[in-house]
Write a structure and sequence with these properties.
By secondary structure, this protein is of the alpha+beta class. It contains six helices and 18 strands. The strands form three sheets. Strands 3, 4, 5, 6, 7, 17 and 18 form a seven-stranded antiparallel β-sheet that branches. The protein has a six-stranded antiparallel β-sheet with strand order 15-12-13-14-11-16. Strand 4 and strand 5 form a beta hairpin. Helix 2 crosses helix 3 and helix 5 runs antiparallel to helix 6. The longest helix has 14 residues. The protein is elongated, with a radius of gyration of 21 Å.
Length: 330
Amino acid sequence: LSHPVLIVAPRSAGDVIADLVLYDVELPGTAYVPERPPSGLCLEALELALMLDCVLKHVSTDQNCLGLRCLFLEAGAGAGGGGGKLRAVATDGYTLAWQNLGSEGLGRGESQGGSGLPDQTTGQMIPLPVGTLLETALGKVKPSGPVSVSPGRFQITGKQDVEIHYRVPEEEFPAYRNVLDCLGPPTATLTFDRTTLIAAVQRCALFADGMYKRMAIQAEGPAGPEGSTPTGPARVAFTCRRQNGESLREELEVRMDLPGWLPILVNASKLLRCLDSHPDQEISVCQHGSALAPLTLPIWGQASGQASGASQAQALSGQIICMPLQPDSE
């Protein structure tokens, strides 16, 4: 195994560890001690678990792309101690997901482009098997306090304390910020009910053939006076055509918050992965000025320092990004 893992736990946690080891992770013959001291971040267990549930789905499983087979944790100044940002990122080359932990994001009225982190950051790679193991451990151990995160080590405090040690990969994570920095403000936004949207895209993904599972998305929005920005109900059509000429068309009524949607081609299976990993019941799909620009699905969280309630201001705490297909892809 390229990234050996060691699980440290008391004998009383035997049943828990036995379940965890069923995952695709092998233990080395001797204990592994991290090269750097175990000083790092403390994260809320529930927030970490929710982040893993979203971001881990976008880690590549391609054995030939070692740099994509890892979750990337990136920390800005002050992360974990107040005033800073910690971000988890994963990509398989076709989709990308990032989510901030314990930090303010952008408000709904602000631009969604840009990385949102300072230029100077530190980061560490977490292999996919370790991330999966951590996600399972959080569910089984039921932590009673924060999870300690340091290079090559996770420490979960609970009724049965568990430590996960691993060798940090030497591969570099892709320059994901280049994608974020190219995104301007949304030029068109469609808002769907999660259940209805997933069902429609799932039918298209099952119907579409070929390597790319091509699906066209077209929208007709509300009309308004010249010079206005109309919002309201819109009709969206998802269309798939097989190589033998058969076609499938799914139509949904949605809310259009920004007009000007351009017809776009996407891989239905990749978009379905993005929708499946989105945590909200209401999903917005944003276009950024071009049919060749990535689609973004913002993840809205509670703005720091605001009171709770229906009027609660929301901040952008993450994004799920789906790359479009070229018109001539087959």
